[in-house]
């Protein structure tokens, strides 16, 4: 799947920066970095906590990842989706 390739590609470029910075939490405001964070957890066992701020008006599968700590949405209607 193209999405998996993209996450792996970006993870390789981000890994050294993420490890050097060692954030307390990673805030994702786009679905792609949220997927990259899940890739780190699944493949590299990098366990920085991450949260997602869903900036879209609908929630789609690219936003949802099993280990995302918390989701923030603009309105309650998105919670139901």
Automatic annotation (TrEMBL):
The keyword Acetylation does not apply. Pfam families: MGDG_synth. Keywords: Glycosyltransferase, Transferase. One of its GO terms (molecular function) is hexosyltransferase activity. Residues 4-80 form the Diacylglycerol glucosyltransferase N-terminal domain. InterPro entries: Diacylglyc_glucosyltr_N, Glycosyltransf_28_UgtP. One of its GO terms (biological process) is glycolipid biosynthetic process. The keyword Mitochondrion does not apply. GO terms for cellular component: membrane. Belongs to the glycosyltransferase 28 family. This is MGDG_synth.
């Amino acid at each position: 799947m193209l999405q998996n390739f993209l996450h792996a590609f970006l993870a390789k470029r981000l890994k050294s920066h993420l490890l050097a910075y060692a954030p307390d939490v990673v805030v994702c405001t786009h679905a792609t970095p949220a997927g990259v964070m899940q890739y780190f957890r699944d493949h590299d066992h990098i366990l920085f906590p991450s949260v997602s701020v869903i900036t879209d008006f609908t929630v789609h599968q690219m936003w949802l990842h099993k280990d995302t700590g918390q989701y923030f949405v603009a309105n309650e209607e998105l919670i139901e989706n």
